[in-house]
Amino acid sequence: MKVRKLVTIERHIAENQAMSPEASGEFSRLLRDLTLAIRIIAREVRRAGLADILGITEATNVSGDVVRKLDVFAHDTIVRAMDHGGHLCIMASEEAEELIHIPEQYERGKYVLIFDPLDGSSNIDVNVTIGTIFSVYRRVSDSGDGTLEDVLQPGYKQVAAGYACYGSSTVLVYTTGNGVDIFTYDPTVGEFFLTHEKVQIPKRGKYYSINEGNAAYWSPELQRYVQYLKTPSEDKQRPYKLRYVGTAVADVHRTLLYGGIFMYPGDKKSPKGKLRLIYEANPIAMLIEQAGGRATDGERRILEIQPTEVHQRTPLFVGSPEDVLEAEAFLRGEQQPVATVAS
Ligand code: AHG
Ligand code: MN
Ligand code: MN
Q1: % of the chain surpassing 90 pLDDT
Q2: Which bound ligand lies closest to the C-alpha atom of 118?
């Protein structure tokens, strides 16, 4: 649903807090700190192509810092915005091998933050859409420093999830388990405004999204499914259109709005695919389910997988419910007849 009223993200979160199970000011402050980090990353993304020339100038003028890669910058910015607020007991970042503990001098809070600071890093230098993905859990350990157990929770326990998509505009897509809202950034006033409320994914789409360069390594079942999507049908539902950005955030964002299916399957070379369960698949799955879509690893619901390792990977099939169900049927070998029409 498109929105006419002027509402900032802070206002919207505050107004919706009463309805949310997380009805504490602490949760709102956590999100305010996180959106600050996202605004800073968005600014840096917009200047990315200038980093070398501006960076050299800044380095001589200010602190002598060397220009950092954007993904390291994004990681550091989120950590610096989040480690001192007293809301978190531990963090995990796709960019960091180890868990990130809260420095001794700061208070520990009841939440856990997991994030992929810069998603789509291979697209940074070619001016193609990139993103930031995050998810928030309530801690399960009692008090003090957070533990591995706090980080390795199944996705259905997320209390909030979202991503920022730095595209033709910067949007923040967000859920606390009460539907999906989209906020669009106005850099001239430094605010995210609510632009779409309670977004619903189409029941079926016209787009499929997968790295088809890997087709030779796919299972025969997956090859049959994608072949089916490309085969014209009498009712003109097929062939589907192919879109593949190579930034999960961008491919998921299009899938959320236009429908269809985004896949990063396991294959002969990478049996578990490429995407990471806790940093990418879980927040994406929560958002898509909250919008009425479906997210599985081909068999199991993503949100019910118990993570055993921080950087573990999972195959991902996500999007319109009818499309994902159809993909799963193909993967089970329940092959559908491929109707071909003469061109
Ligand atoms: P990241 O940049 O955080 O490492 O993630 C990259 C991921 C994901 O965004 C995208 O869907 C996928 O890599 C693309 O992988 P391929 O280049 O193998 O298609
Ligand atoms: Mn990523
Ligand atoms: Mn990343």
Answers
A1: 82
A2: 3
Residue nearest to atom 6 of ligand 1 (CA): 120
Residues having CB within 6 Å of any atom of ligand 1: 94, 116, 119-121, 211, 246-248, 264, 274
Helices 321-331, 220-230: inter-axial angle, 10-degree rounding: 140
Instruction: State yes or no: is 33 an active-site residue.
Output: no
Q: Is 97 a catalytic residue?
A: no
Evaluate whether 156 touches 168 at the Cβ level (below 8 Å). no
Is residue 119 part of the annotated active site? The answer reads yes
Q: Which ligand is nearest to the CA of 276?
A: 2
**Per-residue model confidence as pLDDT tens digits over 32-56:** 999 999 999 999 999 887 766 554 3
249 alpha carbon – ligand 1 mean position (Å): 9
Taking only the tens place, the pLDDT of each residue in 10-35 is: 899 888 876 666 667 888 899 999 99
Backbone angles phi, psi at 289, to 5 degrees: -65, -40
DSSP assignment of 256-291: HHH--EEEE---SS-TT-SSBIIIIIHHHHHHHHHT
297 noted as active-site residue: no
Judged by DSSP in three states, 199 sits in: coil
Strand order through the sheet with 191-196:
100-101, 88-93, 111-119, 130-138, 158-166, 170-175, 180-186, 191-196
- Distance, in Å, from the CA atom of 152 to the CA atom of 309, rounded to the nearest integer, reads 7
What is the spatial distance between Cα 34 and Cα 27, in angstroms, rounded to a whole number?
11
Q: What angle separates helix 70-82 from helix 25-46, to the nearest 10 degrees?
A: 160
Domains of the chain in start order, with CATH, are 9-196 (3.30.540.10), 207-331 (3.40.190.80)
Token code pair at residue 70: 């954007």
Q: Which of 83, 94, 181, 326 is catalytic?
A: 94
